[in-house]
Specification:
binds NADP nicotinamide-adenine-dinucleotide phosphate
Length: about 250
C-alpha cells in the first residue's frame, strides 16, 4: 500500500513514533527513523523493521534546531530523491503549574513540540510542491484541544500544532499535498508511565472506553492518513482518545 514511498518519522526510536515507523514499514514504505538522544534504540527500530522484511535507516537530528532540520531534509532528498510522508511525532513534556513554570521549561517545550514541526515542514514544503504531492501528519494531543492543568506549555504547543496544520493544509492543498493532525488521548508510553496511579485512574474516568490506548492504535490512524485511501482528507484533527474529548 505504501510501496515506493519514503517516510520520515521524527522521534521514532521509541514510544508512539517507533510504532508509527514499524507500521509504515509494514505497509511497504522506506522509513527514516529520526532520533535525538536515543541512537541505540533508533538502530533497534531499524533492525526490527529489517527483520520483518522492511527497509529503514536511522538519522540523528534535534528537531528544535532549524538549521539541522534543513540539513536533514536536504541530505535525505539528495540520497533518496523524494520524501512522500512526514510524520512530526517528536515531543516532550516539562509539566508544572503555570505559576511555578519556568520560562526555560515553557520555551523548551514550544521549541521541540511546535517549532520542531515548523522546522521540518518549512524545509520540506518546497520539495513537496515540486513533487506535487505528499502527506504531512502532525502528532498533536487531546490536551491541545481541551487544555490540562499543569501542562500549559505542552497544551499551548499542541494547540499551536493544530493551527500550523490547518494553515499548511490551506497553503499546500492546491498541489495535492494533505496536512492533518492526530490528537492522541492517554497512550501507554514512557511519557505517561511517570503518572501516579491516582492521576491514571482520574484520567481513565474521563475516557468513554474506560481504558488507555496503545501506540499501535495511534500508528494505525497515522498509516491510514498516509495512504491513498485518505487522499481527500486534509486540514483535519483526528482524535484517537477513546472518546476522552467528546
Ligand atoms: P516518548 O515515549 O517520551 O517519546 C518521545 C519521542 O520524541 C522520543 O522518540 C524522543 O527521541 C523524541 N524527541 C524528543 N525530543 C526530540 C528532539 N528535540 N528531536 C527529535 N526527537 C525528539 O513519548 P510518546 O508518548 O511516544 O509521544 C510521542 C508523541 O505523541 C509526542 O509528540 C507526544 O506529545 C504525543 N502524545 C503522546 C500522548 C501519550 O499519552 N503518550 C498523548 C498525546 C500526544 P529521543 O529519545 O531520541 O530523544
Amino acid at each position: 500500500m505504501l510501496n515506493g514511498k519514503v517516510a520520515l518519522v521524527t522521534g521514532a526510536a521509541r514510544g508512539i513514533g517507533r510504532e508509527i515507523a514499524l507500521t509504515l514499514a509494514e505497509k511497504g514504505a522506506f522509513v527514516i527513523v529520526n532520533y535525538n538522544g536515543s541512537k541505540e534504540k533508533a538502530q533497534m527500530t531499524v533492525d526490527e523493521i529489517k527483520a520483518a522484511g522492511g527497509s529503514a535507516v536511522s538519522y540523528g537530528c534535534n528537531v528544535a534546531d532549524f538549521t539541522a532540520c534543513g540539513e536533514m531534509i536536504a541530505s535525505l532528498v539528495k540520497e533518496y530523491g523524494h520524501i512522500d510522508i512526514l510524520v512530526n511525532n517528536a515531543g516532550i513534556t516539562r509539566d508544572n503549574l503555570l505559576m511555578k513554570m519556568s520560562e526555560e521549561d515553557f520555551d523548551k517545550v514550544i521549541d521541540v513540540n511546535l517549532k520542531g514541526c515548523f522546522n521540518t515542514m518549512k524545509h520540506l514544503s518546497r520539495q513537496l510542491l515540486k513533487q506535487k504531492g505528499g502527506k504531512i501528519i502532525n502528532i498533536s494531543s487531546v490536551t491541545g484541544v481541551m487544555g490540562n492543568a499543569g501542562q500549559a506549555n505542552y497544551c499551548a504547543s499542541k494547540a499551536g500544532i493544530i493551527g500550523l496544520t490547518k494553515s499548511a493544509a490551506r497553503e499546500l492543498g492546491s498541489r495535492g499535498i494533505t496536512v492533518n493532525a492526530v490528537a492522541p488521548g492517554f497512550i501507554e508510553t514512557e511519557m505517561t508511565e511517570v503518572l501516579s496511579d491516582t492521576v491514571r485512574e482520574a484520567m481513565k474516568e474521563q475516557i468513554l472506553l474506560k481504558r488507555t490506548g496503545t501506540a499501535r492504535e495511534v500508528a494505525g490512524v497515522v498509516a491510514f492518513l498516509a495512504s491513498k485511501e485518505a487522499d481527500y482528507i486534509t486540514g483535519q484533527v483526528i482524535s484517537v482518545d477513546g472518546g476522552m474529548a467528546v
